[in-house]
Write a structure and sequence with these properties.
The complex is a heterodimer. Chain A is an all-beta fold. Helices cover 0% and strands 53% of the residues of chain A. Chain B is α+β, with helices and mostly antiparallel strands. Chain B has 2 helices and 9 strands. In chain B, the strands form 2 sheets. In chain B, strands 1, 3, 5, 6, 8 and 9 form a 6-stranded mixed beta sheet that branches. In chain B, strands 2-4-7 form a 3-stranded antiparallel beta sheet, with no helix packed on it. The model of chain B has no long low-confidence stretch (mean pLDDT 89). The chains are: A mainly beta, B alpha+beta. The interface between A and B is medium-sized, with 32 and 33 residues. Strand 5 of chain A pairs antiparallel with strand 6 of chain B.
Amino acid sequence: MAENVTPRVRVPREASAGETISIRTLISHPMETGQRRDGDGNLIPRSIINRFVCSFNGETVLDVTIEPSVSTNPYFQFEAVVPESGTFTFTWYDDDGSVYEETADIAVN
Amino acid sequence: MTFTRRQFVGTTLTAAIALATLPGLAQADAVDDAISTFTGGAEMGSDGITLIAPEIAENGNTVPIEVDAPGAEAIIVFAPGNPNPDVATFHFGPLSGSSAASTRIRLAGEQDVIAVARMRDGTFQMARQNVRVTIGGCGG
């Protein structure tokens, strides 16, 4: 597992039924591209987050295939429709097999 | 002054090699192939997609971009001047509020960032934006 991988998400706490909201997500991760060399001149192998998925009550909002050209600490901002109260689930998949998850509840009034 | 054939061939070859190794064209063929795979060779419009990227990026390690293509089911982004030209593919699910997303990317040097959208009606749109980079961002 990569070290100190911390996900952070910003989701409104409330929305009206059917409203479109903006979501921001960030995860701390070095996103090692496989292009850098270490002190001895050896290539440091690639190790990145390769996929990010946001879903709401089990339905997909966004599914991103991520390649090494995405910056360190991958950041995404996107919009979701909120039909009812529920929970957003955010999942990041690491090359090394680790899976990081974060959730956020939202209340529809 | 007349050029000998040898001089002409030598000069052209050198120019061709120089052109092929320009950072902006480093992976141009690979990107063309990747785009054809994504579109199946279909024509691409340009009015239905917006790609926002800075004209000059201070730091090639983190360049903010935004893609927006109303009605798209997926948008794929390329950086042809990077050692790895693929950047990301955004798939918009049933609960997406728009076919738009923002992120931050690495750019190794000046190049045209390219975004191609597959619309829900099966058509394709493409946008490109040139970005000049003051400090390259691929660790090379």
